[in-house]
Amino acid sequence: MKNKSTLRTLVLSLCAAAFFSSCKIDSEINPVEVQGEYKHVRVLVTDETANTLTQINPYTAGISSFNTKFPMGNLYTTANGRFAAVIYGSQNLTEMFDIGLEWHGDHVDMKGTPKWAAISATGSKPSHFKSKGAESMIFNDGDGTLHIANESSFHTPGAQFTTINAGLAAHHGAMVPFDNGNIAVTESGSRVRIINKSGALVHASNLEVARLHGNATDGVNAVFGAFTTPAQTVGGVLVVNQNGQQRVIANPDGFGAARLGTILYGKGANKFVGYGAAQGAYLIDLTANKITPIYAGNDGLQCKVDYAGNQLLLLTMDGKLRVYNLATGALKKEGMAISPVNASDAFKPVMEASSKYAYIAMPSLGEVHQINLSDFSDVVKHKVSAKPVRLTLLGHETNESH
Hints:
Elements: H1 2-29, E1 41-47, E2 52-57, E3 62-67, E4 74-77, E5 83-88, E6 93-98, E7 101-103, E8 108-110, E9 115-121, E10 126-132, E11 135-140, E12 146-150, E13 162-164, E14 175-177, E15 183-186, E16 192-195, E17 201-203, E18 210-217, E19 221-227, E20 235-241, E21 246-250, E22 262-266, E23 271-276, E24 280-285, E25 290-295, E26 300-305, E27 311-316, E28 320-325, E29 331-336, E30 350-353, E31 357-362, E32 367-372, E33 379-383, E34 388-395
Antiparallel strand pairs: 1-2, 1-34, 2-3, 4-5, 5-6, 6-9, 7-8, 10-11, 11-12, 12-13, 14-15, 15-16, 16-17, 18-19, 19-20, 20-21, 22-23, 23-24, 24-25, 26-27, 27-28, 28-29, 30-31, 31-32, 32-33
């Protein structure tokens, strides 16, 4: 009897071990998606009139407020996802805000509490921001200079961005950092040159276009929205390769005398998109040298790629949200997300998105609406400041901590 009992116990133990082992293997092969936003995603908001920067932690629905020097700072996220640039163009000032989340390859470490970094930049009419790796760059419209700084100096007391003077005239300009360390920069509203980080010329402009506006890069190619000729009769994009080659891609036939003034790049899908509120959203194919429509409506309000660069989100004036698979251009989902927007409103809703949620700042309500991309009726309303008008998303799409 004892032997039978021992054998029975052994068999049961082996069965149990096999069961739990199979459960573990199954969970590793088919992981269960955690509901809600990722733990290390944050949203920052600035206000039209209040000297306030608001941080939203969507994972906990926590709200934190910080004093700013001025209202209505423009917000830009750095490439590493830890810092946000807050640019006050009219006040000639840029500051950096640290959310304290540092990426370590497979997890996130907390580096203190959210706070202002020590570094700042005082340039003439700062307008355009770009970041690559640990470096951040600003273009100053007032004198044509650039500012550059590395994150390693952001918390150094008294630190300032370093000025790059490439001998450019004052203009509404922009720059793009390349993988090889050089920078494509507008030298006027019609030409782009490539310089190094000392401001020296590396490749001269060899194409003249008109009314450059909007840009994005995959690290090798920089794409600028423009009219493709000085006559401004045909719109398209100027493509500048880091080796100095330049070419134009014209808009589709019948597009008319219009340009796509916003250029986006989705890293996950490795796709460029051009957008204009009155033209819609268009896929820019650098291999086929072709621009094709994703959405050809004239009622655009906001057009953004999600944080990972796999989805394109288009919000229209009627309050409808469309979500596209950026790799294929296929429409994944559409539906009403917010109330229709009044065209006469001075400040309209602005949007950013993670892979799970759209975040829409609603100036008239003092709220940011967090909309589930799988179910548009699932909305969390975060009360922020009186009139939120600028918004950015930062952090990391993971729940892993050290």
